[in-house]
Amino acid sequence: MSVVTRVAGGFRTRVIPRQAPIKTFARSLSSQPIAVNVSSEEVTQGRLTGKNLELATRAIHRDGLVVLENVIEHNRLDELNAKMLEDARTLQNAGDDSPYNYNKGNIQQDPPLTEQYFDPSILLNPLATQVTSTVLGPGPRLSFISGNTALPPTPDSPPQSQPVHSDADFDHPNCPFALVVNIPLVDMYLENGSTEVWLGTHHLASLAAQEGKHGERASGRIKKDLLENRALERPPSQPTVKKGSLVIRDLRLWHAGKPNLSDSARVMLALIHFAPWFRNAMQVEFSEKLRPTLRAYGKGLQIQSLFMPDEEIQERYLNHGFGNAYDFDQQDKLAEQI
Fold it and tell me: How many helical (H) and strand (E) elements, i.e. helices and strands, does the chain have?
C-alpha cells in the first residue's frame, strides 16, 4: 500500500507496510453448569459465603443455571421419594388422563404438602432463598410447588425426549424475573433422565423463538433452525446432579426432559420463585397444619399460600394439571414494556 504526500518542491510517495488482518476468536464456554461445593458450615448457618454467593449469582446471569451441591441431607429426601414413587405409579396408570408434559414418559407431579411429608430444608431451603433473593430482589414470591418425574419406559410409553422448550411461553420481561428451584430426590444422570440444558439461552428467550401457544400441552417449543445454530456455538448437556443438590435455573432457559432408561421413576421437585415485582397470582395449596412451619422457616419469601384441611389436600394434590396448563404470567400487564 502506498500513500502520496505533498512536500516542499514536489510530491513524494511513501510505502506503508501491509498489516496482518485482525484476528477474532469466539469465546468457547463450557456446556456443563457451574457446581458450587457448599460447606457443612454454610448449610448449618443457612448462608453461603460471599465468595460462593458471587459464584452462584454470576453463573445464573451468564449461564442461566447453577448447581448447589451438598445442601440437603440424603435421609430427608428418602421418605418423600418413597411416597412420590408410589404416587408416580398411580399417575402413570392414569394413561391419557395423567398430567404428562409433551409425552407420557414425563409427568407433572406435586408432592403432598402435608405435615407428614413437608421438610423445610427441602421446600424452604434458606440457601436457595439467599440466591434467588440476590438475583431477583428481596422477598421473592413462592407461588408454585410441583415436580417433574421421568418414568421408566413401558410398552405403551416407549423412551421419548421432550422437545427443547422454554417454560416462559408467554410475553415476559427481558431480564431475570423467575427462577426455578429444582431438587432431585435421587442422583440424576444420563440413564435415569437427567434434564438436557442449553446454557446461556435465557439471553435468547423470546416468543418469536417458540412454537405453540401457552396452555397447549406442547407449547414453548424452540424452532429447529435456532437449535441448530445454537448447537454450533454452545451445544447442550445432560449434567449429572448429585443427590442432596439444588439446581437453580432461569425460567427462560431452553431445556428438555430426556428418557429414563432405568427401572425406577426419577422424581425432581420444581419450585418457582418470582421476582417481588412480578405479579404472578398463583397460590400453593398447603395443609392448614403447616401455618406455623411456613411462618418459622419461610423467612425471606412471600409464600402465596392457600390453606386447606389435610383431607382436602390428600384428595386434590394428585389431580392438578400438566405444566403448561399453569399460568406463570403476571396478574396484570405493564402499560409499556421497558
Answer: 8, 17
Instruction: Residue 264: count other Cβ atoms within 10 Å of its Cβ.
Output: 14
Q: What is the overall mean pLDDT for the chain?
A: 90
Contacts of 136 (CB under 8 A, 6+ apart): 176, 177, 178, 179, 273, 274, 275, 276
The alpha carbon dihedral of 68, 73, 75, 79 has a sign of negative
Within a domain: 5: no
Q: Residue 17 pLDDT > 90, yes or no?
A: no
Kind plus residue range of the DSSP H or E element containing 16: none
CA torsion angle 70 76 82 88 (round to 10):
-60
Query: What does DSSP say about strands 35-37 and 65-69: parallel, antiparallel, or unpaired?
Result: parallel
Classify residue 24: in a domain, yes or no. no
Residue with cell 410398552: 155
Cα separation, 252 vs 165, whole angstroms: 9
> pLDDT for 188-199, tens place per residue?
999 999 999 999
Residue 337 has pLDDT above 80, yes or no: no
Helix or strand (DSSP H, E) at 273: strand 266-274
Q: Give the amino acid at 132.
A: T
pLDDT-above-70 percentage for the chain = 89
CATH of the domain at 247: 2.60.120.620
* Predicted local distance difference test score (pLDDT) of residue 84: 97
Enclosing domain of residue 169: 32-322
Our count of domains for the chain comes to 1
248-280 pLDDT, tens digit each = 999 999 999 999 999 999 999 999 999 999 999
Prediction pTM value? 0.89
Whose cell is 399417575? That residue is 91
CA distance 121 to 11: 83
Compute the C-alpha angle 22/23/27, nearest 5°: 140
Cα 230 to Cα 172: distance, rounded to the nearest angstrom: 21
Grid cell 439467599 — which residue?
Answer: 130
C-alpha cell at 161: 425426549
Domain membership of residue 18 (yes or no) is no
Give a yes or no: residue 331 inside a domain.
no
